[in-house]
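Morning F.,

Quick status update on the modeling queue. The single chain you submitted on Monday has been processed. Sequence for confirmation:
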Amino acid sequence: MEDSHRSARVKREGDLLSILAHIQELSSPREILSVLLRRTVESYGFLSGWFSIFEEGEWHLVDSYPPLEAQRETSLLSLLSSLEEGKGAKTLTRKDHFFVVVPVRTRWALRGALILKGSSRPGEDLLRILEILGVATGGCMTRCEKHISRLKGLSFLVKAERRGRNLLVLEDLSEIEERVEKDCRELVECQGVLLALVEENEIRFLKPVGEEMKSLARRILSSKKEIFWEGKGLFPLLWEDKVRGLLLLEGTEDLLKKQGKKGVLDIYTSSLAQSIHRAMETRLLKERYKGIVTSPLLCVFQVDPEGRISFINGSLALTLGYPLREARGLVGKPFHQLVHPSHQAMIMEKLKAQMKEEGGPEIHQITMADKEGSPVPMMVSTVPIA
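Structure tokens below.
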């Protein structure tokens, strides 16, 4: 047993020397962090790892291994609050996993932290090795100090991509509008509002605006280029080369001076435009669908693969003599109950065949049965749906 522990310790120390030698050869902070994360996770049996830098009193996640490892950013950053001045690595438990937070310090200050996720609690000897890695990484970061500010810009780009993906799951335009203000404040550090939506080349303002703003909006709709004035910026939200909306930002002069923020804005506005487009399409489809199923001129029903009624609109219910309050009670019942006995076998056979073939619309002349069982001749168009 003692020999196995000694062998494991020798291997860990050998891995440490190998990692240190590797990162000492590198001059790019991006490479240093990438190698550090990959080698540490793989050599010491962790599941994943992240690196965060500490700048101007704030933490910024800048790298992960494996790449794009899914983990809520807020939960990771909350782990960093456990770091204390002058203290070493710390092990924390979250649900079924252990997280090791390793401070990365230079001689003068805390510069970052290595966060490692594992399935078992690391021993004291491994924690000491990780602390040595943290000190060595701090030295490497000092050596390439002039590049460090770029990492913060990278963290905002990653955050912009993540926020953009979050926007794409929203289908309600009011939800998107509410989200924009918070996103702009956190991503580009200035006040921002979704000023207008554009449908069929028509501008619909979401906020009260004057004639000057309306004129600027029309210019952007034509040029598809942003406009800056008096510390403000009006940006077109472009998707598939069409303006889908307008984003108004304040404090854009300072924004454009900050490294990487223009790139962050480009990523975010592209996702915002796509989200608006999808929300508009969804709303249009819902309006069309609602118009069809609520029309007093159209009888609409839906049948599931087992032949049960899954939807029936008020027009069909009334045509067959059912009061509207009873229409909902028909859902879940066999569809053939609404068909005259003389046509039941024929129509059910055709519907089952059509569902299997997944073809286009078919027209059937059938006789339905009203609530009293009396025949009701109808021309029915049926189409399979997913």
